[in-house]
């Protein structure tokens, strides 16, 4: 068993990551109608323990005395880098040790992460859990004040910070990927953090998501023996399934629907759910089909076969997908809807197609009904240059 929801709380030194994590834990455990358990853990504590054992440093002071920790920061950083060279999988080991030590909670919040794009890097290790990154950011002035008067917050390296020159704020746009959620932590007190959790984090435990999951029929030994297939398209065949999925896609979107110009979708599963969603939000559809099935003029992109599709159809040939030229205006804000995110090959091809049409990754969001992290689709998207695309999934399943 793993926690149902794992939240990686990232950000720069002094942004208030540990403080926010503690506030969000309190929101989860005091939500009377959910009966949730939650815990916050710092992943950097593992490195501190190893450093203290190797050097004789005082572990308690490393954890609780900011001035003492700052004295040891250069040596701690060097120690971490040396250990990483000797044990390249050390971050994964530390992450899994924390997860396995929290099997008794519903929600696990982890601070002190050093990995870039940690959801893409780590989600395949916990395929039965939903893994989120919430990046906490604050102005340089606020972070400087907190570093001077608050203890216990984070192990970031300010020398690596990316800042907006106008206000000294951490600039998430300078990252080569997009965090799942961003929380601006400039205000004093905990009200803003509590409202953020209530609006963006608690909905992951909405009963309608469980209702939706119950509509996904497991099919053993399909498409080959040993595989348990999740029949996501079956949702649309259930009474109320299409209405429920449309409602959740609409409600869970973290962007602004009023700024969305087009809903794009690729045959066949995407057509079903995208059509209903486009009708609800009253924006046009951009239909993407196998090249040659739409009348000219069109734009096209190569779709590489995935190991899943190849095993299902014995067809390992590259295909091309296309859409009508100018159906999506240049610079438009696009939401791509599909039934699943598994290997990511289909969505990569869709994003390449949109790029051909003049739509950059920063203007695209992806919404899928179900994600299968074991296939590392997010990692593929990032490696192919689409890390800045916002990706949301209603459901997460282990296996195929």
From TrEMBL:
Descriptive protein name: adenine phosphoribosyltransferase
Swiss-Prot/TrEMBL keywords: Cytoplasm, Glycosyltransferase, Purine salvage, Transferase
One Pfam family cited in the UniProt record for this chain: P-mevalo_kinase
Compartment annotation: Cytoplasm
Record's subunit section: Homodimer.
InterPro entries for this protein: Adenine_PRTase, P-loop_NTPase, Pmev_kin_anim, PRTase-like, PRTase_dom
Regions of compositional bias (Basic and acidic residues) in chain numbering: 157-167
Gene3D superfamilies assigned to the protein according to its UniProt record, in alphabetical order: 3.40.50.2020, P-loop containing nucleotide triphosphate hydrolases (3.40.50.300)
Pathway info: Purine metabolism; AMP biosynthesis via salvage pathway; AMP from adenine: step 1/1
């Amino acid at each position: 068993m793993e926690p149902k929801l794992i939240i990686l709380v990232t950000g720069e030194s002094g942004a208030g990551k540990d403080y926010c994590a503690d506030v969000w834990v309190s929101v989860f455990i005091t939500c009377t109608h959910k009966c949730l358990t939650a815990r916050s853990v710092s992943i950097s504590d593992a490195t501190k323990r190893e450093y203290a054992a190797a050097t004789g440093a005082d572990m308690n002071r490393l954890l609780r005395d900011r001035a003492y920790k700052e004295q040891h920061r250069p040596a701690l950083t060097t120690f971490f880098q040396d250990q990483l060279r000797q044990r390249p999988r050390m971050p994964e080991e530390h992450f899994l040790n924390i997860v396995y030590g929290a099997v008794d909670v519903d929600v696990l919040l982890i601070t002190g992460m050093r990995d870039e794009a940690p959801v893409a890097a780590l989600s395949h290790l916990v395929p039965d859990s939903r893994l989120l990154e919430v990046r906490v950011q604050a102005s340089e002035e606020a972070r400087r004040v907190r570093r001077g008067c608050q203890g216990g917050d984070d192990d970031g390296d300010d020398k690596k910070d990316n800042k907006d020159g106008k206000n000294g704020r951490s600039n998430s746009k300078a990252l080569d990927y997009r965090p799942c959620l961003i929380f601006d932590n400039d205000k004093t007190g905990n009200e803003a953090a509590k409202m953020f959790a209530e609006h963006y984090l608690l909905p992951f435990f909405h009963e309608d998501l469980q209702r939706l999951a119950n509509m996904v029929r497991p099919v053993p030994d399909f498409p080959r023996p040993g595989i348990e297939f999740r029949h996501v398209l079956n949702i649309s065949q259930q009474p109320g399934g299409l209405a429920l999925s449309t409602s959740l896609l609409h409600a869970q979107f973290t962007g602004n629907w009023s700024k969305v110009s087009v809903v794009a979708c690729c045959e066949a599963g995407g057509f079903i759910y995208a059509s209903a969603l486009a009708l609800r939000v009253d924006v046009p559809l951009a239909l993407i089909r196998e090249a040659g099935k739409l009348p000219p003029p069109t734009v096209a992109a190569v779709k590489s076969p995935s190991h899943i599709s190849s095993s299902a159809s014995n067809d390992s040939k590259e295909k091309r997908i296309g859409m009508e030229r100018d159906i999506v205006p240049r610079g438009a804000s696009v939401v791509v809807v599909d039934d699943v995110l598994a290997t990511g090959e289909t969505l990569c091809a869709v994003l390449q197609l949109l790029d051909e049409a003049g739509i950059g990754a920063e203007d695209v969001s992806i919404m899928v009904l179900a994600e299968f992290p074991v296939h590392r689709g997010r990692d593929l998207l990032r490696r192919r240059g689409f890390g800045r695309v916002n990706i949301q999934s209603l459901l997460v399943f282990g296996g195929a």
